[in-house]
Amino acid sequence: MTLAPGLQARLLIMVEREDTAAKVGSGDVPVLATPRLLALAEQATVQAVAGALDAGQTSVGTRVHLEHLGASPVGTHVEITAELTGVDGRRLTFAFTARHRESVAATGTIERVVVDRERFLARLAR
């Protein structure tokens, strides 16, 4: 498989207490926390390209734009979809959407860069 626009992934979660703003410390209400939503969106981007990367490659996040448009309380099912919309050398651009109860809960873009896993980790050890 080749890295090309159109690669997609979809996650479906039910908001649990551990996912809430009150639990992760980003607020004090029992709704899906923005940091948790971002982590799920990033997870979807990773899954979207997992089968298209060469052996030894991975991608790392470099930029995020997120608009959290609606609250998702505990027990709500949320679907997060991510699609690869652009490839510029090693730079990958994704669009993502989170939906709940027939409405959009969040939208945004995530940029990731393809790296050689071993070289990336070796630089951290210096």
Whole-number mean pLDDT: 96
How does the helix and strand content classify structurally? alpha+beta
Secondary-structure element order, N to C: EHHEEEEH
| Uncertain spans | none
Radius of gyration: 16 Å
Distance between the termini: 34 Å
How helix-rich are the residues, as a percent range? 10-25%
Strand order of the largest sheet: 1-3-4-5-2
Query: Number of helix segments?
Result: 3
Number of strands: 5
| Main sheet makeup | 5 strands, antiparallel
Large-scale geometry: globular
Strand content: 35-45%
Topology:
Blueprint: E1 8-14, H1 21-24, H2 34-49, E2 57-68, E3 77-88, E4 91-100, E5 103-116, H3 117-124
Question: Can you walk me through this structure?
Answer:
The chain is an alpha+beta fold and 126 residues long. The protein has helices at 21-24, 34-49, 117-124, and strands spanning 8-14, 57-68, 77-88, 91-100, 103-116. It has a five-stranded antiparallel beta sheet. Strand 3 (77-88) and strand 4 (91-100) form a beta hairpin. The radius of gyration is 16 Å and the shape is globular.
Give a quick rundown of the structure.
The chain is α+β, with helices and mostly antiparallel strands and 126 residues long.
What are the key terms here?
single chain; 126 residues; alpha+beta; five-stranded antiparallel β-sheet; 5 strands
